[in-house]
Specification:
about 45% helix, globular, about 220 residues, alpha/beta, five-stranded mixed β-sheet
Length: about 220
């Protein structure tokens, strides 16, 4: 029986469980029937700040985690087929005033309102090619965003304070606190992993020859 090992750049439960749960959905399309999958966690550095504050930084952190795993496999000879980097953090968006507001109040034309979203990103590589995927986004309360962005408090620490709990990152995560557990940290990463693996389990759709034939 063929064993396919998927290395994940973290040992945290929500991240590892997200990969395992996502495999239940698409593993049959990723390999021939009967293949056995194994998910292993390896603690690696992301190379970005403790709480990424932009989409670009989130993507870079996820990719760099996977790249560290690939380098480890090269020098150790580890038989890992897929390399998964997961990164959670913030995307800051500046929202312009609506046209109606501009018409009513000309002074609002230059006014921009900051919106801060929590996002979960994944980067998956087979050693030759890599692809990104992400969850949706949930908006942070203004006070929580200020604590992280202006005061420099790590999101995992800040959310514990705001929720009056300890260890939220390894449980439902900030996602769970903000959504009343309708979406947990694990679920957000599960969606990101499924999206990032799509070019591998749905390779036909991502084949340039296949898509150009329908142009």
């Amino acid at each position: 029986m063929k064993k396919i090992i998927i290395a994940v750049g973290s040992k945290r439960g929500p991240k590892l469980n997200a990969v395992k749960e996502s495999l239940e959905a698409f593993s049959g399309m990723l390999a021939h029937e009967g293949a056995q999958f194994e998910v292993i966690g390896v603690e690696v550095e992301s190379g970005v700040s403790h709480t990424p504050a932009s989409r670009e930084e989130l993507m870079r952190g996820a990719r760099q985690r996977a790249e560290v795993l690939m380098e480890m496999a090269r020098w150790s000879g580890a038989a890992w087929q897929y390399f998964v980097g997961l990164e959670g953090g913030l995307d800051v968006v500046h929202e312009s005033a609506s046209p109606n507001e501009v018409l009513r109040h000309s002074r609002l034309q230059q006014k921009r309102s900051r919106r801060v979203f929590l996002e979960s990103w994944a980067f998956v590589s087979d050693g030759a090619q890599g692809h990104y995927g992400r969850s949706g986004g949930i908006e942070l309360p203004v006070a929580l965003a200020h604590e992280v962005l202006e005061n420099g408090v790590e999101l995992s620490v800040a959310i514990d304070r705001f929720a009056g709990a300890v260890g939220i990152r390894d449980a439902q995560g900030a996602w769970g606190v903000l959504s009343k557990n309708f979406v947990t940290r694990q679920e957000a990463f599960r969606v990101a992993v499924i999206a990032a693996f799509a070019p591998f389990y749905n390779a036909w759709m991502y084949n340039p020859a296949a898509t150009s034939s329908h142009a």
